[in-house]
Amino acid sequence: MESFCLSITVPSELVMSLLMVAMVVLLLVVIFLFIRHQKRSKRRLNKLLGLITVRNSHDLKVLKENEEKYRSIVCLMNEGILLTDADHRIVFANKCACKQFKRPEKELCGKKLSDFAVGKSEAAHLDELLDRNKAGTVAREEFMMYRGNEDTFWASLSFTFPGHLKDIHDGAVIVMVDVSGHILLEQKMRKLTNNLVQKVKQLDCVFEMQQMLGKPNQSTDDILKKSLKIIPKGLRHDHEMRVEILYNGKEYKSPDFYKSKWHYTIPLKAESQVVGQMTVSFIGTHPPLHSQPFKIGEKVLLKSIAEKIMMAISVVEETTGRSGTK
User: CB neighbours (10 Å) of residue 96?
Assistant: First the structure.
């Protein structure tokens, strides 16, 4: 029995067609999977962007609320708050600062703080202080300032130059406190202290003069020459005071004495008769502008000393029987 081998011959065109179909199907599957993946990624991205937008909106709202709260706190603070720009011009003033200046904020903004300083030297020093600013530094000084009604007040100014705010604020942050009451109290205490010191000086002078006049065996010349050194000790400007005593035609005077336009003269009397005079002269370059070189208390002291000198001289002359040198 004969065996037959069957051989099937497939045309090459069919094989190529099947391969092409398979590749197209595979490509379509890949494209489908890619598009599906892209849609899923886009949905995830949109969801994430939505969450970020909601979160940013919430953060922005919170920041805005906090900014309004901080601004309200700054506006209602008991200290004046001023913000300046790089040219030292005021860009913000809280209610307390406006109250201290007695001016609305619109009158303060755009002006320099030195525009309200009393005196050109104070204004120049204030501008110089702001010019010397360095990031992170703090300075504090007191200045006399003008109010809106032309009154003056003392302001304690604390200057801060925050370097970490350079991107949003390149000027100074100034805290201002009205210290007029404290300054006036300090001035009053200083005046009382000076008066007390002056009273002590006058008492010491009177005591030293009394001790000198009470010494025995002194001549008129001795008394008058020693008086030249003691008398200035009871006066405020003792180092700038010189004394001249004219008695019975003789002249006694301190070194460098000359009669300036600031002098005070007391007549020397014996038994109601003028026998000479005592002149105290201020020889300093300039006396204090706010007061005379000789106050009432000093004039009373000089009159009292003149009387004591004449009493001592009378005793000496009665004892020696002459008015000249012993």
Answer: 20
Superfamily of domain 75-178: PAS domain (3.30.450.20)
Q: pLDDT by residue for the chain (326 residues), tens digit each?
A: 444 444 555 567 777 777 787 888 888 888 888 888 788 877 887 777 777 777 767 666 666 665 565 555 544 556 888 888 888 899 888 888 888 899 998 999 999 989 999 888 888 888 888 887 665 567 788 888 898 877 889 888 888 877 655 555 678 888 888 888 888 888 889 888 988 988 999 999 999 999 998 888 889 999 999 999 999 999 988 899 999 999 988 999 999 999 988 899 999 998 888 999 999 999 887 765 556 778 888 999 999 999 999 999 988 888 876 544 44
Tell which residue, 214, 210, 209, has the closest CA to residue 227: 209
Question: Which DSSP category does 154 fall into?
Answer: E
Arch. (CATH architecture) of 203-320: 2-Layer Sandwich (3.30)
pTM given for the model = 0.53
d(CA 174, CA 165): 14
Locate the domains of the chain by residue range: 75-178, 203-320
Structure tokens at 62: 């919170």
Token pair of 30 as six digits:
């890949």
112-121 burial string, b = 16+ CB within 10 Å, else e?
Answer: bbbebbeeee
CA distance linking residue 36 with residue 42, whole number of Å:
10
